[in-house]
Amino acid sequence: MSASPRKRSRAEPAEDTKAECPFEVKYESEDVKTKARKAAKRRKQAQQLGGAGGADADEDEIAKVQPSPFTPSGSFKNDENMDLRYWVEPRDKWMAMTRYNSFVLNSAKYFSEGFIYISNGMASPTNNQVKVDENGVRQRMPNEWVGRILEIRAADEHHVYARIYWMYWPEELPVQTKDDGKFVARAGRQPYHGVNELIASNHMDVINVVSVTAEAKVKQWFEENDDEIQDGLYWRQALDVRTLSLSSVHRTCKCKQPANPDKTLVACSQPNCSTWLHDECLKHDALMRTFAALGTDQPYIAPPPPPPPPAAAENGETDGSKLDQETGRPLSPPDNGVEVQQSIDAKPGASPEAEAAAKERLSTPRGSSARGGGGGQGTPTVGTITAAPGSLRKTKVPKRGKASAARPYEGLFEATLKVAENVVEIRDLRANVTGGVKVWTEPLVCLVCHTTIS
């Protein structure tokens, strides 16, 4: 398998500014491996016969091994590492050049194993075009790629070349890329890729060093380090170009998806859980709970504040009355000026007055008032009354697309994460609902252990 001189296709610019490079990298393929095994077998047979190995005897020695300078935290499904067997053509011309540890271009010195910006063939950026952000990080330019120098060779000062590994921007991930052994739903940037994130690879090329525009500062991000903040170019994932497989990344939260370092993560406060949770997942959970409680037409009624605890004496009694141990309130209201007896014997059965009233009810004819005729003081009987029903007016809810089936709250409520307060602020967007509170907060609840995050 041979590597293309450019890592992605593009329309040729009107003014071709790319530096000429006569070298091409080839990777060892299965055909080469088979040919090497056959050559080794012929060499062994020739040695047994006492003859020379033939012209093909050293073909299996052509390919060299490039140990990968990248060691991602994750792993690949198939290959154990990213080491690559390769050779450069024309081989004799490449091997005849002198190897160097560094080169100087436009007063800037570049070292082997360092990261560099490389012009992609379009017009190179000028000093006025290059911009840096508030952290002093050079902003990405559309006419530059990033690579890592593996080897420097030169015939003279006008013919200096570098063998490099390309660093991919997430947008450059090709079709049929596999993540965790499965084809990605769409090629290019994935939801967990950060703005300044690169992807290491074993895609090798040889370039003319005059296409180098500047030094690039790239560091590896170890996801196990929770406190590490990425304020420049970084990589955590690697691409094996032989199988188009991405190395695995750490997955967290209830959704078991990787973390985007540009977005907020909240850790569960329970020591036996401590799961890192995505801010979007926490907001989604709070919005789903809100929609389940209020639906499309119910206003949010704020709960009343809890009453202040009553003042109590040290012995647990106030004004001679005993206090309930749980509520702190008197068990019975005080009755000042009335002597309180110690005890009374309660007898089962009805009192004499209740028995007399029962006999009177039994002697009264059914259908007549116990107090006399229709002119008595009892409640008059009238015809059937029809109860007025409550408002059953249905609120017309606009139809939402299929994408909203998993998010029924869209267009009705929105949420903002308040990390410092450990709450989610809910805002009611329903114009047809009157009354109630329009903005309130809900507690942060861990999506794994279901405890309130404090």
Give the overall shape.
elongated
Number of helices: 4
Q: What's the CATH H-level homologous superfamily of one domain?
A: Bromo adjacent homology (BAH) domain
* Terminal CA distance: 56 Å
Count of DSSP E strands?
A: 26
Strand percentage: 25-35%
Helix and strand run? EHEEHEEEEEEEEEEEEEEEEEEHEEHEEE
Rounded to an integer in angstroms, the radius of gyration calculated over CA atoms is 40 Å
Uncertain regions spanning at least 5 consecutive residues:
1-17, 51-59, 361-403
CATH class of one domain: Mainly Beta
Looking at the structure, the CATH topology of one domain is SH3 type barrels
Q: Give me the secondary-structure category.
A: alpha+beta
In this structure, how is the largest beta sheet organized? Answer: 6 strands, antiparallel
Q: Which range best describes the helical content: under 10%, 10-25%, 25-40%, 40-55%, 55-70% or over 70%?
A: 10-25%
Whole-number mean pLDDT: 75
| CATH A-level architecture of one domain | Roll
